[in-house]
Design goal:
Helix content: 10-25%
Number of strands: 5
Distance between the termini: 47 Å
Largest sheet: 3 strands, antiparallel
Order of helices and strands: EEEEEH
Mean pLDDT: 76
Strand content: 15-25%
Number of helices: 1
Low-confidence stretches: none
Length: 80
Amino acid sequence: MAELSLATNPHNYLGKDIDPEKTLTHNVNGNGEAEATYKGKSINYMEYIDIIEENTNDVASGRKIKSSIGMFSGFKFKKK
């Protein structure tokens, strides 16, 4: 399996910071797998990519980056 390596400044897009509040982190564990956090909570890497994508689109469109990103985590049906 190919190993991941970190960019020197992964939250910079065209010279603009796409994580100004520094709420996102990502690291590569000993197995070469990506681990990510958002506001100190562990998230899967695809959620991390979604947040980065949304922030990058906001920057590219000239919109202010949202300070809070809501994440839908599903729902459960009540048993009758």
